[in-house]
Amino acid sequence: xxxxxxxxxxxxxxxxxxxxxxxxxxxxxxxxxxxxxxxxxxxxxxxxxxxxxxxxxxxxxxxxxxxxxxxxxxxxxxxxxxxxxxxxxxxxxxxxxxxxxxxxxxxxxxxxxxxxxxxxxxxxxxxxxxxxxxxxxxxxxxxxxxxxxxxxxxxxxxxxxxxxxxxxxxxxxxxxxxxxxxxxxxxxxxxxxxxxxxxxxxxxxxxxxxxxxxxxxxxxxxxxxxxxxxxxxxxxxxxxxxxxxxxxxxxxxxxxxxxxxxxxxxxxxxxxxxxxxxxxxxxxxxxxxxxxxxxxxxxxxxxxxxxxxxxxxxxxx
Length: 317
Description:
With about 325 residues, the chain is α/β, with parallel strands linked by helices.
């Protein structure tokens, strides 16, 4: 990612902010862009950035950052205004305290490359600064480039279109919905997870994206902010939350694409959880066209494909 023949621009997301500066020390780069970053200080561990003085449990969070100083390269910080792992106020403060920089803000959460790829690409392109050419860099969007292609991650956009590199195995042909059960504490108080749990979930989501199986995922507000539409006896009723049966309510979901249901179960067993509070997730295969048999006529299939194309067009994918 660089104009003309300039050295590359390094884009480092989240915990990648521990790696990006080290790359800049080893190869010539024209710029370092930190995206929703964990900005380290020399000798600091990732666990200290995320969980403060508490002892981190994972080795990756316990090893100190080996750099002695920040690399002498142009650096910018891009922050998602809806990031729930590193809230925007936190990113503004840390960026200013550690780098003397004010973040460029874009809509989206921690995985902004997945949720708001177009806005992120616009911001990254605007940040590219030519270092060799005397001509100003003119931003040109390739209309054939799919969102996310710069990030080397095989994922799917919310419309269902695969984007990213060709190195991800594309024989995955089974979609699974993973439903996270709500808890009494969440339903009663809307109690947010700890910073440590949010960081662990963010790292887990990055693994899912890097493995090329995550199609979508989000958390849900508690049922006090929801409603049910009930059909029966020729009537339609709306019942406002909250609802008391927390074991039947959802707190979040993922949609994955995997080779087998067994693979999905193995991934689900690795979902971060709070040992102080029991929880569970439920996995269900999603119907594919071939599951409907002869009843799914060519006309119905054509109608479905037309709707998918319309959705993709509406969302710019």
